Amino acid sequence: MKEPQAFQENQATDPNLENGEDIKAIIFQYLRYWPWFLASVLVFVIGAFIYLRYSTSIYQTTAKVKVLDENDDGGLDLSGLSGSRTLFNMTKVNLENEMQIFKSRRILEQVVKSLDLNTTYQSKGTIKSFLVFGPDAPFHVNWIPDSTQQEVGNSPSIQLASLGNNEFKLSAESIGEQKGRFGDTLQYGDFTLLITDKRVGEDPKPIANMSFWHTAMNHKVKNLAQQISIEPVGDKSHVLQLGIKGANQELNKAILDRLIQVFNQDGIEDKRLVSKRTQDFVERRLVFLEGELDTVESGLVNFKRDNNVVTVESSAEQLFGKEAGAEQKRYEMETQLLVARDFQETLQNQSAFDLLPANIGIDNENVNALTQQYNSLVTERQRYLVSGTEENPMVVNLNQQINQLRGNLNGSVNAYIRSLETALRSIRQRESVSAGQLGSIPEKEKQIRDITRQREIKERLYLFLLQRREEAALSYAITSPVIKVVDWAYTQPQPVAPKKQIILLGALVLGLLLPFGILYVLFLLDTKIHHKNQVKRLLPQIPIVGEVPTLLKTADRLIQKNDHSVLAEAFRILRTNLNFFVEREQEGGKVVFTTSTTKGEGKTFVAINLAISMASTGKKVLLLGCDLRNPQLHAYINLKKNLAGTTDYLYRKDISLAELVQKNAFEHANLDLVLSGEIPPNPAELLLNGRFESLLDEARQKYDYIVVDTAPTILVTDTLLIAEHADATLYMIRANYTDSKLIQHIEELKRNDKIKNMGLVLNDVKADGAYGYNYGYGYGYHAEEVAKKKKWGLF
């Protein structure tokens, strides 16, 4: 039978419109469970607030320093030119080396020791603990190593509680409890402690919930090196930015400030090495000259006393004046010779890479220049050894330069000494000529002059060294710093971790994604039919003639007289659609089959209520039970299952339809009922014996509509054997019950034309619809309000 035009038109839909409807359907599919999303978001956001409230805040502290170039003389700055550092050698600042020195173990150990970072103090709160900087702690712990332990190892967390009267109690899980007194040395486990009370006042606040522990130096230095970050501000800048992250702002600032101070002092000490070496050399020479002067002066006094000599002969004044110039020159030569020989002795006896004394009075520009260059190379080598090893290519290169320069310096000193000795011999020869002319001067006076001359030489050298010592001390005291502090340590007021906005946003996203993921998986695994659009998409060639809503447990399952409930309105719509759907050319009543794929999909329920709805319009209606294997009509009317019915009519030829009819069924005068009867052993054979056609023909003569409750199609063939006798077949699909895999069976029945004029009825549809069809039934009919409580269940 051809389908009505109205239902054919409903099957042709616009693809774009259908896609839009699918997108909206998917959106509404998830929006149905908005309480889940709301609850999930609330849980995650509240959890995020709790985490932010009780998590430890981490702060970022930074400082900036400029590394000074010790060779910067204020001249032309070509460091900004590309490649100028190599071409012109305008600056010797190597930021990579300075960064390594900043984070060197030697520097960090000084920082740890000066700030007592080996001991960590912690204040335990109700939920979280707080790190306490050492100076802010109410007590100080001094770890005393014993003879077998050079460094105190890592200790467990030790809790301290004051007991009053200068007493306290220590407790640790691995050691136990022990009492002690502030200021006394205490042996606690493997550790020797001296704890000092820093509280002030007559009634100090008691100490509670305070703990401390010790970290070995190597571990602390390693951790500190990992925490501190150092990087240049720019490619062409000499400014370094130091940073550290930590929970205690004051501790962060103290570490960076102390690191800057230690680094600067270390650089100053490196620059003071030359002055210190010169000072030590002069001090040794002064001690020696003091003894020499004392010996010479004592000899002069003894000689004059023993020989009764008081003044020089006046007649020798003119002669001695002639040789005064020669003597003055000889004094200077002898002074230079002594200084040069002392310098030569120092150069030959000291270690290969020690600094040489500078500016000690040698009157030779070549020697002084080589000495200054030698000290510069030695200082540069020591700086490279701070961050490198002896195998460093730069160190090896410097070693070669130093050895070569040492040889050149030694040769220059030897040449200078030889020149002094030559000049001195020439002067002495001239003096010997003058000495012959002094034969008339008493021998004693000559000896006095020799002694006086020796004294003057020693005195001049002594005064000269005193001057050099003061110059070296002044140079040591006013050594310029190696860095300039651009910014001392500064802590940002806002913590860098945990990041509040990111965590709250993440909590919001997770709160939305979690229920979405769960729903997505459940929707993905769900194979049930839920709504009308899903049926239309899977079976576009079969029209849907009605939808039956889900009933509350307390609602009537059958339509009552003058019923304006949602159920009654749904079957009125089904009845109206069925009038347009059923077409019959022959005279007599119209036969409507109700069937389904499997049992439990509501075919009997729909058949009964459809018959009641038709009878309420004044039509004569017969409800015929034809599910011979599993009859259910009797359950709705409280009749016995084995009453005579369709089975008896098919089996016995002597029974008429009138004998089987139950009049006024379901309290409706126009509705008659014929039960299925007893379950036969051979239902299929009975339906094919020709008696069923006679039954329908007789019913058509008496009734306007015959509603036949048939068997499910996938389980047995009963319905398919008699399907050709139906004017229309209502095929039941139950929402949230029928599996989508069974749609293939329905499609096959339609494609093979096994069921004539098939129309689908979607049963058990929720009142609000699967996708927001909440306009419902009963509009304008003052239907009773049904207080339906929404469940958060899935399907």
Describe the structure.
The chain has 795 residues and is of the alpha/beta class. It has 25 helices and 20 strands. The chain has a 7-stranded parallel beta sheet, sandwiched between helices. A 6-stranded antiparallel beta sheet has the order 3-2-10-5-6-7, with no helix packed on it. A hairpin with a 3-residue loop joins β6 and β7. α3 runs antiparallel to α15. The longest helix has 45 residues, at 393-437. The chain is rod-shaped and about 185 Å long. The model is unreliable at 1-17, 73-90 and 769-795 (pLDDT under 50).
Number of strands: 20
Number of helices: 25
| Low confidence ranges | 1-17, 73-90, 769-795
Based on secondary structure, the structural category is alpha/beta
Question: Which descriptor suits the 3D outline?
Answer: rod-shaped
Rg from alpha-carbon coordinates: 57 Å
Distance between the termini: 37 Å
Report the average pLDDT across residues: 82
For the largest beta-sheet, the strand count, sense and barrel status come to: 7 strands, parallel
- Biggest sheet strand line-up: 14-20-19-15-18-16-17
Q: Which helices and strands appear, and what pairs or packs with what?
A:
Layout: H1 5-11, H2 15-31, H3 34-54, E1 59-67, H4 84-87, H5 95-102, H6 105-115, E2 119-124, E3 129-132, E4 139-144, E5 158-164, E6 167-172, E7 176-181, E8 185-188, E9 191-197, E10 210-214, H7 217-227, E11 229-232, E12 239-246, H8 249-271, H9 273-307, H10 317-322, H11 324-349, H12 365-387, H13 393-437, H14 443-477, E13 483-491, H15 500-525, H16 532-538, E14 544-549, H17 566-581, E15 590-596, H18 603-615, E16 621-625, H19 633-637, H20 646-651, H21 657-660, E17 671-674, H22 683-687, H23 691-702, E18 705-709, H24 718-722, E19 728-734, H25 743-751, E20 758-765
Parallel strand pairs: 14-20, 15-18, 15-19, 16-17, 16-18, 19-20
Antiparallel strand pairs: 1-12, 1-13, 2-3, 2-10, 4-9, 5-6, 5-10, 6-7, 8-9, 11-12
Helix pairs in contact: 3-15, 6-7, 6-8, 9-14, 11-13, 12-13, 17-18
